[in-house]
Amino acid sequence: MANATSSSSLYVGDLEKEVSEAVLFDVFREIGPVLSIRVCRDANSKVSLGYAYVNFQNPLDAERAIETLNHTSIKGRMARIMWCRRDPSLRKSGAGNIFIKNLDSAIDNKALHATFQSFGQILSCKVVADEDGKSMGYGFVHYADEKDADKAVSEVNGMLMNGKQVYVGRFERKERKLQSLQENFTNLYVKHFDPTVPEDDLKKFFENFGEIESFNCQINQGAENSGVIYVNYKNHEDAAKAIQEANDTAPEGIILEGKKLVVTRHQKKQEREFVKKANQKERQQELLKFTNLYVKNLDDSVTSETLRDAFSEFGTMMSCKVMTHPETNISKGFGFVSFKDSGAAKQATESMNGRMLSGKPLFVTLAQKKDARKAQLETLYRGRGSVNPAFGGGGMMNPAMNQMPFMNNPMNFGFHQGPPGGFNNYPGGMQRGGQGMQRGPMTAQPNLMRQQRPQQAPFAFGAPSMSQNMRQPAPVGIGGPNRLGMGVRPMGGAPTGMPSSAPMDTVDPAKLATMTQEGQKNHLGEKLFAKIQATEPQHAAKITGMLLEMDNAEILNLLDSPDLLTQKVREAMSVLKRHGQ
Sign of torsion, CA 535 541 546 547? Predict the structure, then answer.
């Protein structure tokens, strides 16, 4: 093969989403030494895109992999293997690519390849299948030489394959095909005419624009004043003239009262859907030119006009909308502001984030799709440091855990030796009733604390060292359950209270503003932990650390919005489950 002497990189397509680099390595290492394997994934969701690249050390091994593994099953699906071409010009041009339709359902990639390989070197061969893997009756064969493609078309077109006559023609991209149809159409679609007018009179009206090959008038008897006409002209010029002179007019005697005639080029359903998707994509690309901001923690009294007035000082806005419930028209507490200039958007983010509007601090950031936010949360989780036995030994630590409220709280913690059996599986290695973690005078039993110091290392989390904690006694005389719901007692004493299920007091933004950044995180972390512990007691510590990565204004919004907090907890739980936590 011509590529074998110059390349050792392969493209592997049509893969199941579950196929990973490890699975491919097990498959291709049987051929020869593999240098690298990369499964391409979505940048946001990290889900496989269904194709990968495999690099061999020896080009001959790559050639042998194509010969032996192409169209073989990997995880229950036929893989398509071809040489990796870094220059996409050949693929995009469509040169050497042919289209085959009316294929029998029994014909797969391998059978199609075997049929057409006699005409020349095949770069790629594929039978298009649905989500269930069933053939859709058409496929593509891409030849390295355009002459081989012409030969295959001339010799196979109209022949029988598995008892069915197939059509074989040169592949033409939809964009080019649509352009050709628009330049040469003759068939028109007409509506809003009066269905009571005789068909001959309607036909005479359209004959004024040119010679007609066929005229089909269809009246919908089930609906009043409803019908369509299909007019096929002999020449494209006549059809274009009919659209230009008759569309959006009200010719006397054939039009419905109060309506205007609609005359347009007839389009098949597939073409209409393609054009619709293309227009949507174009609009999305247009919107990407503008910087879209996400604004939340809005008061119910804030309307789109109020939000526009608040952001108008930063520059020209393309759109501004507060999202509302469709049934009640009540604000959902968030909205979007789109600026024409990215500099204005940046300035608005820096100036408006945390600013008070209608008595509530705003949270302003760049708008992200849901899958992007979820992927970001997952990236934060994967990026944690080392495995910490205090959290079951199965998860990696998040840097946010250094800011856990019960680690850096000014009321320093001591640790008390619990009963046999470890920490009773309480979340994060803590025990109820203050048996695993407790507040109290650090000087109560210094000898005991010195003996237990080695056991306390997993709980450090970047907080002040245990020796520092022991040298700084916590305030004495605090009674009742503490903010984390754990009983407070002197060293060695009995617990004075059980975890309280009473709701936490609300956060005062003014009071929060007087605290240091670390103090704010500690305070908000305590509130979050108490709320999360009520629904996810086994993972409350982990989830709290993950959510503390968020901005303080966003955390405030979570504390004020139970539904939003529940949603964030679910997203965090899905990340933990994905990593086997």
Answer: positive
Structure tokens at 50: 């269904």
Mean pLDDT taken over the chain: 74
Tokens of 347: 């300035």
537 neighbors 571 (Cβ within 8 angstroms): no
CA distance 330 to 301: 9
What CA–CA distance (Å, rounded) separates 37 from 24? 8
Q: Can you spell out the DSSP letters for 534-546? A: TT-TTTHHHHHHH
Give 367-421 pLDDT, tens digit per residue. Answer: 877 776 766 666 666 554 433 333 333 333 333 333 333 333 333 333 333 333 3
Spatial contact of 222 and 253, defined as CB atoms under 8 Å apart: no
Cβ–Cβ under 8 Å, residues 405 and 459: no
- Token output for 575: 């990340």
> Which one is predicted more confidently, 193 or 479?
193
Give Cα separations from 435 to 173, 402, 494 (angstroms): 71, 22, 9
Mean pLDDT, residues 73-86 taken together: 86
Please tell me which residue, 156 or 133, carries the higher pLDDT value: 156
The structure's pTM equals: 0.42
To 10 degrees, the CA torsion angle through 379, 383, 387, 393? -10
Rounded Cα distance between 277 and 529, Å, is 45
Residue pair 177/165 in contact (Cβ under 8 Å)? The answer is no
pLDDT band of residue 10 (cuts 50, 70, 90) is very high
- The C-alpha angle with vertex 177 and arms to 172 and 183, in degrees rounded to 5, equals 145
Instruction: Return the HEC string of 222-238.
Output: CCCCCEEEEEEECCHHH
CA atoms within 13 A on the CB side of 247: 12
The predicted model gives 81-92 an average pLDDT of 75
- The pLDDT tens digits for 30-59 are 999 999 999 999 877 788 999 999 999 999
Token reading at 164: 């069915």
Angle between helices 562-578 and 540-547 (to 10 degrees): 110
Structure tokens at 263: 């005359």
pLDDT tens-digit map of 514-542:
788 778 888 888 888 888 988 888 888 88
Residue 340 CB contacts under 8 Å (≥ 6 apart), including other chains: 290, 315, 316, 317, 318
CA distance 70 to 124: 10
Q: Tell me phi and psi for residue 523, to 5 degrees.
A: -65, -45
Query: Could you give the percent of the chain with pLDDT greater than 90?
Result: 22
134: amino acid identity, one letter: K
Quickly count: other Cβ atoms within 10 Å of residue 308's Cβ: 16
Compare 309 and 392 and report the one with higher pLDDT: 309
- Are 480 and 497 in contact by the 8 Å Cβ rule? The answer is yes
Contacts of 110-114 with CB under 8 Å at 24 or more apart are 110/71, 110/78, 112/139, 112/141, 113/70, 113/71, 113/141
Q: What is the pLDDT of residue 378?
A: 66
Provide the sign of the torsion angle of the four alpha carbons 275, 277, 282, 287, taken in this order.
Answer: positive
Q: How far apart are CA 506 and CA 221, in angstroms?
A: 65
Distance of CA 89 to the CA centre of its chain: 29
* DSSP H helical ranges for 362-500: 370-382, 405-408, 446-452, 466-471
